[in-house]
Amino acid sequence: xxxxxxxxxxxxxxxxxxxxxxxxxxxxxxxxxxxxxxxxxxxxxxxxxxxxxxxxxxxxxxxxxxxxxxxxxxxxxxxxxxxxxxxxxxxxxxxxxxxxxxxxxxxxxxxxxxxxxxxxxxxxxxxxxxxxxxxxxxxxxxx
Length: 143
Hints:
It contains five helices and two strands. The protein is mainly alpha-helical.
């Protein structure tokens, strides 16, 4: 398993859902569901793609910057194009995210291109998922 995927599982395992809250526009369940869909889309295909030219230029550059910085920054209330809005409990959202990461870990076939970053190796996709999770967890505080 990749270091990024190990780090994602470790980070999620540290969260006590009874002692945290979201300070962002989305509640915890919505946020975890959003993160899970990002992982699921890498396995099954994103409903909508940015143009290939965008992926090969702006998208590739953006991922490179995020990867090198070790930090992603994006609009934390922006949906993934084609995402299905899911208002679920924090427990259900976390379960979906955890299950999606397990499916990603066990996936042995080609991954689908990221809607903005284009085609990524499994290790780079794991890194993108970790950075996405960490970016959204910036809006989580302990209560």
